[in-house]
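Figure-free illustration: sequence to structure, shown twice.
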Amino acid sequence: MQHSPIEIEKALDLTQPAETRPERPDDPKRTPPSDPSGLRRLVGKQALPLAVMLFFGWLLWEKVAHLNIHAVLATIANIQPAQWGLAGLATLGSFWAVGQYDRVLHAQLGTGISDRAARKSGIVAIGLAQFLGFGALTGTLIRWRMLPELTLWQAARLSAAVALSFLAGWAVVAAAALMFFQPELPWIRTLATGAVLLSATMAILSFFPPRPLVRLPWPSLRTMATVIGLTAIDTIFAGLALYALLPEHLHLPLGHTISAYLFSLGAGLIASTPGGVGPFEATLASLLPDIPLEPLLGAVVAFRLVYYVIPAALSTLVILRGPRKSNLAQEPKLVKTAPSPFLSPQLEGQIFAAPRAEAGLLRTRDFSLLTASDGTGLGLAAPIGQSLVMLSDPLAARACPSATREALARAAARRYRMPAIYKCGARMAAAARRAGWRVLPTAEEAWLHPAEFSLEGPQYRQLRRILRKAEEAGITVSEGTHELPLDQMDRVAAEWLHLRGCERGFSMGTYDRDYISCQRVFLAWQGTTLVAFVTFHESHHEMTLDLMRFGPAAPDGTIQLLIATAIESARTQGVPRLSLAAVPWQGEDRDPLIRRLRAKFLARSGAAGLRRFKAAFAPHWETLYLVAPSRIALAVSAMDILRRVTAPPPKPTGNPMKAARFATHSTLRLSRLFPGRRT
């Protein structure tokens, strides 16, 4: 595989994607504006590969000038049909892996493109781009042509991701080949050791990121392993194609030849010349010095015919034909909402009808909507670390637990992550257990019926005492309207953050003006000064406590008074259920690994004080569960969740790589030039 690592975003100045909307049937056909200056800069950068190719040609000129061209041609003529056939089969194996690169990257970036379309576009992009060279430009334009659902900016980002992931995989494979076959090249051996250590460091950081790096979108270990495995298949089969075309009388060791090919390939990639011409031959000749130049170049010419010319010709035909149907996947997937708490009317209705009001966390920066193959929303999910974690129960009260769990597992498999469901109820946990999944109690939710709540009775003695303290301090409570005192709320939130040090995330909301404007808000005043507030998620079935923020001026009992007022408001409005949210489960674990993880989580969460606070309202307690397909997946997802709770993302972001539902640009079709039957 030959693909340029030249960075394309800077050359095209594609720092932000252009906003697109689906085309309507009555819309006039329009072509998005291009950036001629950006394209000129990108084309100008291709002068460097041309200069490198000319430089290596000048270095080789002395040897090339004395070449026996007839001997080179004779080497090609003496290649047997069986050798051509073996080289062709090896090329097919290599290009199979080439198509998988794009499939992996599309899944990792969440573009929504189907696996088949991703493989096809990847194969034709590499097939022609490696022949033409200048892969930054050609790969981008070919993918843009084959996937009209992507913008030029998205195609450029995708091409860069494929190139960089291949380079990373190539470095590991080349290093492993060198250390295994041990050619006598000490300076390269040092580089190989460094590449292996770097890859090991990346794997460790993916699994155990230090706190400052937790928020970075690390690829999962399975993604890294898949890319390295595909790179090995791609490059080893390409090396086998070259080996099959070498004259039999040379008796070259297979391992040494493949190692030489790998490093020659790297030289061509770094130089970015068309097909790696020049650096590839120069490096290969230096690594195989015992082979006469004529037979070696003859085999290389034959290899370029099989591995470059024929795939380029076939790719050209496919590219000219162009896309024939929608490339979007019809599979369970994650749909990232806009980076705003304000959702579409359809989603707003679905969240309000959800059995758990906690579905309002879809408004936060952490979650995407898990959808079925037909686009039906199933639940809230987020890729974190090595896991794809769904939060709580399905959005639809009558949703089939098994169907939701299977959709989650399929979506996780496409993203090379392990599925898990966090804080689900007993029904979902029982269905998962019957399917062979591991089930772990993880939290206890405190909830009550507002219609039955009363401050009378001995169980509320402590609550009555703390409420009197707040009332005696002159605290009054009001429910927020559409005109919230946002400036004062900002101040209280900042004071709380100064006291606590950091916000939690994932299954807990974080303070944001737009976010709280979508919730029920209750405000505590001391005179005209706001001293505390709480917010609740709201659905048709319940209200759920989310944010509790207070400053140093808030007297004891202020938060309790806010919650008691919210309970009274819920009773007045006929809300059947009010949740005080969950606290960590504090039972005994038999598994020593889970026991250590739980102890670590409890130490960070301050669970004991939180449980005492909620117990003052004499609530009912419902056990919630973490479920995953295996013991390892259970432990890994627990660690991923713990890290995300303690280090939420810094700001909300959409998915800039999400493909549009319709074409973003016009594409040339041969059927328009030559009318005929369309398929």
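We now fold a second protein in the same way, so the two outputs can be compared directly.
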Amino acid sequence: DPKTPFYTSPRFLPPTKIDNCKFKDAIISHGCFLRECTVDHSIVGERSRLDYGVELKDSVMMGADYYQTESEIASLLAEGKVPIGIGWNTKIRNCIIDKNAKIGKDVVIVNKD
């Protein structure tokens, strides 16, 4: 509607890096890192990180406010902590994932009726 414009802030993010992923009816935002994951009927917000084997279906992932470097991620994993994003082999269905969420590896989150 021209009478009520929608304003947003400009973002100067790099393009999303996609490595061997499958998408179906998905919206992927800027600055994401997606590795061998499947995104089906979902929205992936800016700066999101989806690791190997992640399945995101019928969900909205809000993204992140900042990046973690590879060395920060390695340090967190060595300490047994979880970095921002979704870890290896995690399955998520029918969910809304808030900003800066930390979801570990081999997790299953399914919102059933």
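Summary for the second example: The chain has a mean pLDDT of 94.
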